[in-house]
Amino acid sequence: MDADHLSQRLATVASYVPQGARLADIGTDHAYLPVNLAKRGVITSGVAGEVVPGPFKNAEHEIHKENLSDQITARLANGLQAIEPTDHIDTVAIAGMGGTLITQILTQDFDRLAGVQRLILQPNVGESNVRQFLMTHGFQLVTENLVSEDGHDYEILVADRQENPTQYGAEDLHFGPYLLADHSPVFVAKWQRELARTEAVLQQVESANEVPAEKVASLKAKISEIKEVLQRVGA
Ligand code: SAM
Q1: Angstrom distance (rounded) from CA 61 to CA 74
Q2: Which residues line ligand 1 (CB under 6 A)?
Q3: Residue 52 CA: which ligand 1 atom is closest?
Q4: So which residues are the signal peptide here (predicted)?
Q5: Helix (H) or strand (E) holding 191
Q6: Would you state the pLDDT for residue 235?
Q7: How confident is the model at residue 3, as a pLDDT?
């Protein structure tokens, strides 16, 4: 992967960045996302935020190599602290991290999102935490996508600022309201795999000398939740 050839996962994230956006990409690593968008004329300006010096140097190098230093600023900073009011950032992307970390990053400097209209989030795991954050912090999910690449399933959540976002129940938070409504073949395959994995864990747990009742109950609840959803979507 490089800035001219994004992975399908990152290309999908890129596809939700509005034309003319002022983008902050938090946890940018090589800055492939903002560089790709600047080269294609999608973003007006960008901030490439990184907390680790090595990846930050990679980002600086990539931006310099592509002569984009006037348009994209690399900043070594923790999470949203990479965003300054003078950047007038309106779109934030955070991709390739766990949902808990993404939620922490968004929560701990929430005031830095003041002018932000759109969040594009791609948690590797813990997606329901991210949906919970969005609906409790004035961001309405507007679409979701599910990309299967190199043996992993990646959920991409897109949310726009809105005063009274829809309050989702447990099932929507877990499966994703848009992903569930679409129930694409990728969605069905993901949850069939997750069902098989959970059933295997249950079997293992039940064969232990001392069977932990609480764990068994939670695995069984998870299995019946997935089965119910798969049955409902005709899988
Ligand atoms: N966003 C790129 C992508 O999706 O391909 C890179 C993902 S990489 C797996 C995660 C990056 O997030 C790492 O470079 C890591 O150093 C950075 N990161 C982790 N926590 C961070 C934080 N609190 N603030 C900024 N960057 C962070």
Answers
A1: 9
A2: 10, 26-29, 49-52, 55, 78-79, 95-97, 101, 105
A3: 16
A4: none
A5: helix 185-206
A6: 81
A7: 92
Q: Which of 1, 12, 16, 51 to mutate to test the pocket of ligand 1 (most atoms within 8 A of CB)?
A: 51
> What is the third-level CATH fold of 8-168?
Rossmann fold (3.40.50)
Contact 21, 91 (CB under 8 A): yes
Distance from the alpha carbon of residue 212 to the mean position of ligand 1, in angstroms: 36
Give just the sign of the alpha carbon dihedral 148, 153, 156, 157.
Answer: positive
Q: How many CB atoms lie within 10 A of CB 19?
A: 10
For residue 59, which phi and psi values (nearest 5 degrees)?
Answer: -65, -45
Q: What is the pLDDT of residue 208?
A: 87
- Segments of 52-167 assigned E as strands: 72-76, 91-97, 118-123, 139-149, 152-161
Low-confidence ranges of the chain (pLDDT < 70): none
